[in-house]
Structures are given as structure tokens and as C-alpha cells.
Specification:
The chain is built from 13 helices and 21 strands. With 463 residues, the protein is of the alpha+beta class. The structure holds flavin-adenine dinucleotide (FAD).
């Protein structure tokens, strides 16, 4: 059988820098308003969400955006798009779709160790430009193709017991509202607006720029190893305490999990990583395709093929290690649990997943620190995050119908950009400042110009 003995090594976890996905409108700078090239619709990364906007609007600057909003008819609807990496239908509109791809770049902020970042800046570009200034973000998500504004708008996060999601480092931002006003907010100026706007799903207006606290550029040392899953699950809280960044991937129907740690590295050495994620996925998929009908045999064969002695190490700039490539497309759900519920919850999720012989994608378990943004899933709560994936084009309804209820029994709050089916009534119970947010949204955008059907469901607004 061609299944590699490297099966277990998610390894690579990839040092390769993710290529930027160039959206269609990035190549049309001559005019800001571009007729949508029919019949090409907009699609998100996984292909699950699609729409045919009437117009793509790619303003040259904040002033052009504000002017366009001021002069547009009141009934015109607007949605913002970043890199289209959300799985939920946050972006789709059949009216105007605005992209800040021409608003990209980083400049030193007013205060020490801060940077002003334009909303359309992709995270990969942001990391490189910060590095050139001797700075870095304290943490990064799995991939870095997202736009800065899109990433903070859904509370995008990495892993680390003491490391919060990206938006928690935002100290000030500039918001272009439905009326075409430009509002500035910070800890001293409109602090309530700042707390609401950091994670706002593009529903309060367009984030043109956000100032972020940065840290001196740093190197990390990564270690990847395999461990029997029951043992690693028990050790997870302790490992999260011992390492700056700790996460694990459970490899379904193998009994093993791959642990990944990153710690500050002052050795000055560079040790390249080897990206083997795709090989691992291919092997897990083959095992499912060939032996999915016989789970006992599938486990046994996986046990023979896995070499638990294999480990991997890498040393490099943090941004070169923390974010990796994801060539294989998938759909995903992720919930954020109270930290003390994480391990119990993941055990139930694994048991439910292994009732389904079609599952092969690894499950991801991470740690995220608390923050104070009103709609942050980490609002005043130290959290564990559990993400479950299904290959694009394969069944994924069970992520909502079978896995979602387990997360909710453990007090989970859904990732705004990943599949969930919650509406306003449930969200109001999960977010102490939910009604304050809804009220503020109505004040800023009484006509609902920035709403689409999904956001209406989230905020309990009539169509
Ligand atoms: C392969 C992959 C890996 C991922 N890894 C992680 C991970 O490790 N951690 C994690 O937390 N998430 C992860 N995600 C989810 C992803 O980070 C979020 O969905 C993020 O919001 C996507 O950013 P984007 O630029 O693609 O935004 P989009 O998906 O295009 O938009 C997201 C939201 O932001 C709004 N928005 C965009 N630009 C603006 C703006 N200028 N002003 C106001 N609102 C705006 C949109 O209207 C929408 O509501 C991953 C997704 C994929 C596909």
C-alpha cells in the first residue's frame, strides 16, 4: 500500500510563505467602479459562498470611499470583502461589493511600538513590512492571506494560552460609515465604538485603517511530534502552560495526535521546515477511501503505518513559521469554549466524528486568551478553540447538525467566519454586550445598508 510512513507528520506545518490570492479586481486600478464581469460570480475560498454583485467597488482611498457612500442612493446595499476566506455568508451581496485592495500598507503609529495598517493589507504583506521596520505581530493565524480588516472583523486568532486574537491588539481605528462619515475611535476617543468596531463583521461600516500594538521582531523554534491521542489530550493544558504557542491536530481513526509547539528562539540559527501537510492529508484520505467501510481495520493499518518516533523542528522568523499554506480546500466549523471545558468537549467531538466513516480531515485544538471586544468570541473568557474540517465538495452538513450541538452544550461561541447556524436569540445569550452592539449598529446604519440576509439573521433584523 502506498500510504507513507510519514503519515503522522503533519510536520512541514510549512515554512513556505503563502502566496497571495489575487482577487479579480486587484488588476483593475484604472477605475474604482468596475462592472462585475458577468457571468463570473464572486466566490469564497472554499467555493461554498457565491454571489453576483452588481458592482465591484475598489476605492483608491478613504476619501473616495466616503464620497461614494455619501452620494449613493439610500436603498443601495454594500458589503465589504477582504480575501474571501470566511466560510459563512458574511460577504455575498447582489448589490455593491467593496474591496480595499488598493488601501494596503503599514506606517509607524503615533505611539511607541504601534503601527497604522490600512484595511486592505494582507497579513503576509503586513508581516513583511513590519519585519522591515524591526517589528512583528505577537501572533498569527494558520494562514496569512487574509486582509487586515477582514481578519480582525471576525476575531481571527492563532494559538497561545496567553496570546489573544488579532483584534485585541488594535488600539485605534478609522471607520467609514453608511452616511459617508469618517469616525475615529481609540481608548480615549469613542472607546465604546472601538470595543464594538474591532469585531463587527463589516456591519458598522468599512474599516479603512486600524492601529495595532506591535512587538520587536522575534524568532521561534518549532517542534512537531506524535503522541497517542488520549495521553496528549490529558497533557494539553500543561503543554499550553509550558510553551508560548501550543496546538494539536487529532488524526481521525488513527488514535494519534500531532502536537506543535513554538517558543522564542535566540539561537540565531535558521532551520527550514519541510511542508508535508498535503502528504498527510492525502494519506488520511486514502485510508478513508480504501478502508472507510471497516473502521477497525482502518485503525489497525494506520497503527502499522504511523511511526510515532518521527519529529520535526524548525527555527525562523515567527511569521515564517506560524502561518502555513492550505492548498487543499475545505469547509470548516470552529467554536470557542470556556477553557476548562475544552478537553471534555474535544473528547465528545472526536467520538462523534468517528461515528462517521467518511471523516478524514484532522481536527485542530488551540488556546486563545481573553479580550474585551463586544462581539469577540473570547469576550472576557480564556478559551480553547476546536475546529472541524470537511473536504470541499464532500458532505459538511453534519458540522452543523451533529458537531454544533456538542459545542453548544459546552458553552461554545462560534467563530464568526466559520460555519454555524446561530441566530440573534442564541447569540444574545452568549454575548453580554450583544444588545449594545445591535443598538449601536442601528444608530450608525438605520437603513441597514451594510446588512445582507446572513447579517439580518445574526442581528435579528427583518428583511
Ligand atoms: C484556509 C483558511 C485558514 C484559516 N485559518 C484561520 C485561523 O487560523 N484562525 C482564525 O481565526 N480564522 C482562520 N480562518 C478564517 C479567516 O481568518 C476569517 O474568516 C477572516 O475573516 C478572513 O479574512 P478575509 O480577509 O478573507 O475576510 P472576508 O472573509 O473577505 O470577510 C470577512 C468579514 O470581514 C468584513 N470585512 C472585510 N473587509 C472589511 C473592511 N475593510 N471593513 C469592514 N469589514 C470588512 C467582511 O464584510 C466580512 O464580514 C481561516 C480561513 C481559511 C479559508
Amino acid at each position: 500500500m502506498a500510504v507513507s510512513r510519514r503519515l503522522v507528520l503533519r510536520a512541514g506545518a510549512g515554512a513556505a510563505v503563502a502566496p497571495l490570492l489575487a482577487p479579480a479586481w486587484a488588476q483593475v486600478p484604472a477605475s474604482s467602479v468596475v462592472p462585475a464581469p458577468a457571468p463570473a460570480p464572486w466566490r469564497n475560498w472554499s467555493g461554498l459562498q457565491q454571489c453576483q454583485p452588481q458592482r465591484f467597488f475598489v476605492p483608491a482611498d478613504e476619501a473616495e470611499l466616503a464620497q461614494a457612500l455619501r452620494s449613493a442612493p439610500a436603498q443601495q446595499r454594500w458589503r465589504c470583502v477582504g480575501a474571501g476566506h470566511s466560510f459563512t455568508p458574511l460577504v455575498p451581496t447582489d448589490d455593491w461589493l467593496v474591496s480595499l485592495d488598493r488601501l494596503s500598507g503599514v506606517a509607524p503609529g503615533a505611539a511607541a511600538q504601534t503601527a497604522r495598517v490600512q484595511g486592505g493589507t494582507r497579513l503576509a504583506v503586513l508581516s513583511r513590512q513590519l519585519d522591515a521596520l524591526g517589528w512583528a505581530l505577537p501572533n498569527l493565524p494558520d494562514v496569512d492571506v487574509q486582509s487586515w480588516a477582514g481578519a480582525i472583523s471576525t476575531a481571527t486568532h492563532g494559538t497561545g494560552r496567553n496570546l489573544p486574537a488579532l483584534h485585541a491588539q488594535v488600539q485605534a481605528l478609522r471607520l467609514v460609515t453608511a452616511r459617508g462619515d469618517i469616525l475615529e475611535c481609540s481608548a480615549t476617543r469613542n472607546p465604546e465604538l472601538l470595543a464594538a468596531a474591532k469585531v463587527s463583521l463589516g456591519s458598522l461600516g468599512v474599516i479603512a485603517e486600524a492601529q495595532v500594538a506591535v512587538v520587536p521582531a522575534y524568532n521561534l523554534h518549532r517542534r512537531v511530534w506524535l503522541e497517542p491521542a488520549p495521553q496528549l489530550l490529558e497533557r494539553a493544558p500543561q503543554l499550553a502552560q509550558q510553551h508560548r504557542n501550543f496546538e494539536f491536530y487529532y488524526l481521525p481513526f488513527t488514535g494519534y495526535a500531532a502536537a506543535i509547539t513554538h517558543d522564542i528562539d535566540d539561537s540565531g540559527q535558521v532551520l527550514d521546515a519541510h511542508a508535508a501537510d498535503e502528504d498527510v492529508l492525502r494519506d488520511l484520505r486514502l485510508l478513508r477511501d480504501w478502508l472507510g467501510f471497516a473502521p477497525g481495520l482502518r485503525r489497525k493499518v494506520a497503527g502499522w503505518l504511523i511511526d510515532p518516533q518521527q519529529t520535526e523542528e524548525a527555527r525562523n522568523r515567527a511569521w515564517k513559521l506560524l502561518s502555513t499554506q492550505r492548498p487543499t480546500r475545505f469547509n470548516e466549523t470552529e467554536y470557542h469554549l470556556p477553557r476548562e471545558a475544552g478537553v471534555a468537549c474535544v473528547k465528545e467531538v472526536i467520538a462523534a466524528l468517528e461515528q462517521r466513516n467518511d471523516v478524514f480531515f484532522p481536527l485542530e485544538f488551540r488556546f486563545v486568551a481573553a479580550d474585551d471586544a463586544w462581539l469577540s468570541p473570547f469576550y472576557q473568557r480564556e478559551s480553547c478553540s476546536i475546529a472541524v474540517h470537511a473536504a470541499a465538495g464532500e458532505a459538511h452538513a453534519y458540522l452543523l447538525s451533529e458537531i454544533g450541538p456538542i459545542f453548544r452544550r459546552h458553552g461554545g461561541r462560534p467563530h464568526w467566519g466559520k460555519l454555524h447556524d446561530l441566530g440573534a436569540a442564541q447569540l444574545a445569550l452568549l454575548y453580554p454586550r450583544f444588545q449594545d452592539f445591535v443598538q449601536l449598529r442601528r444608530e450608525l446604519d438605520p437603513q441597514g445598508r451594510f446588512l445582507n440576509p446572513h447579517l439580518r439573521q445574526l442581528f435579528g433584523e427583518k428583511a
